[in-house]
Amino acid sequence: MSKATKTAYRCGECGWTTVKWVGRCGECQAWGTVEEAGARQGVHVAKAGPVSAPAVPIGEVKAEQVHARSTGVPELDRVLGGGLVPGAVVLLAGEPGIGKSTLLLDAAAHTAKDETVLYVTGEESAAQVRMRADRIGAVQDRLYLAAETDLAALVAHVEKVRPRLLVVDSVQTFGSAEVSGVPGGVTQVREVAGNLARLAKEHAMATVLVGHVTKDGTIAGPRVLEHLVDVVLQFEGDRNSRLRMVRAVKNRFGPIEEVGCFDLHEKGITGIADPSGLFVSRHAEPVAGTCVTVTIEGTRPIPAELQALVGPTEAPQPRRTSSGLDSYRVAMVLAVMERRLNAKIGKCDVFTATVGGIRLTDPAVDLALMLSVVSAAGDKALPNGLVALGEVGLAGELRQVRDVRRRLAEASRLGFTRAIVPAGSLEDESPKLQSPSSRRHLVALRDRGPRTSAFLPGFEVTEVENVWDALTHLR
């Protein structure tokens, strides 16, 4: 029998081992995850034991028990995929003061109209939560409130109240006496989250955990926290704006990247059913340096305006500043412009931003970003009523994006009349599945250059092959 291998310290995130303690893991670079591991024996052969329930054919499993139940907040239901599933564990993360507690208290009050809800707070006193509930009108007889920071006390409240929905605000403030470490540490967060997930499954109780974020916007605590839960939601928003967005980054019961829009005001938080138009400025006359695109957030097309400002500078290193856009993608688009379009912006400061505080990561905004920078550099406004869609490649080609028809239909609904899209966008929404005949048709389109057609009555669509054709068409 081989001797046991001894390791002094082990990373709780990735399993990396070291002979001495370090504050940062040498493999995954996570802070505070290296803990004493002790002796690790060889792999043991597991013996058969009692089972909780016998295995049955999958067709005999009753799926009615996991149907989603509405939270009473339509925008939150949209992100969750229809509502909260009994036994599901949801993690809602966001910056301090962005409105997480307000949103969950409002959802808890709506749910408490029909079912029992337990709201456990570890960050505030019960009186503070009651004051917020009075302000937003969230006082319900079946909404129970407790202020605790001990896991055992939380479990006792659950056993006594037997809620259908449990809200824990927040998971980093709770600790367990069964393990070492301070609340919020890796060991404590793992222990608390694991026990709450087990409790949720045993009682078929939907559970929502509030999570903290680090200074770079990622969820605080061990990575295993995101694996333990069923749904991970990110609460986003600018402190200087009332607009808040909840984005699903993991969802076992619905689509990911779905977005819910909310208006945070002094009397609470209200869902915005139609956010189209919130991210587009209304100018009496066309303004240089602006271009509108249509992004897809989950299943919802949202028109968004991109703005650019280009000015000469004598500084040795011109500034490249972006707000609401991926800085690396902005740098790539600017490099393509300089190389493929001979744009003289190498000695200019370039500032780019989105309107309304929306954050755009969709590659389909590349063309609109390029056109806004060209418009700002030449101080010449683009035609009124224009939207631009397309991903820009390093060779200057325009690549097709998904759901072009839905994007254009939303733009038409808001009054836009013209669009520039990549060649073949209206022919086939799935370029990878095109037949040889359709590919020959696309080659023919490229040989002919830009093609203009009517998409909807009064809406003109121009298909172009590359960024040069797009600029030539607008001149």
From TrEMBL:
One GO BP: recombinational repair
Entry function: DNA-dependent ATPase involved in processing of recombination intermediates, plays a role in repairing DNA breaks. Stimulates the branch migration of RecA-mediated strand transfer reactions, allowing the 3' invading strand to extend heteroduplex DNA faster. Binds ssDNA in the presence of ADP but not other nucleotides, has ATPase activity that is stimulated by ssDNA and various branched DNA structures, but inhibited by SSB. Does not have RecA's homology-searching function.
Record's keyword terms, sorted: ATP-binding, DNA damage, DNA repair, DNA-binding, Hydrolase, Metal-binding, Nucleotide-binding, Stress response, Zinc, Zinc-finger
Name of the protein described by the UniProt record: DNA repair protein RadA
InterPro entries reported in the protein's UniProt record: AAA+_ATPase (IPR003593), DNA_repair_RadA (IPR004504), P-loop_NTPase (IPR027417), RecA_ATP-bd (IPR020588), Ribosomal_Su5_D2-typ_SF (IPR020568), Ribsml_uS5_D2-typ_fold_subgr (IPR014721), Rubredoxin_2 (IPR041166)
Biological source species: Microbispora oryzae
SMART domains: AAA
This protein's GO CC annotations: cytosol
Coiled coil segments of this chain: none
Positions of region (Lon-protease-like): 349-475
Motif (RadA KNRFG motif): 250-254
UniProt-annotated binding residues for ATP: 94-101
Family per record: Belongs to the RecA family. RadA subfamily.
Gene Ontology MF annotations: ATP binding; ATP-dependent DNA damage sensor activity; damaged DNA binding; hydrolase activity; zinc ion binding
Record-annotated RecA family profile domain positions: 65-213
Domain comment as written in the entry: The middle region has homology to RecA with ATPase motifs including the RadA KNRFG motif, while the C-terminus is homologous to Lon protease.
Top-rank taxon, per record: Bacteria
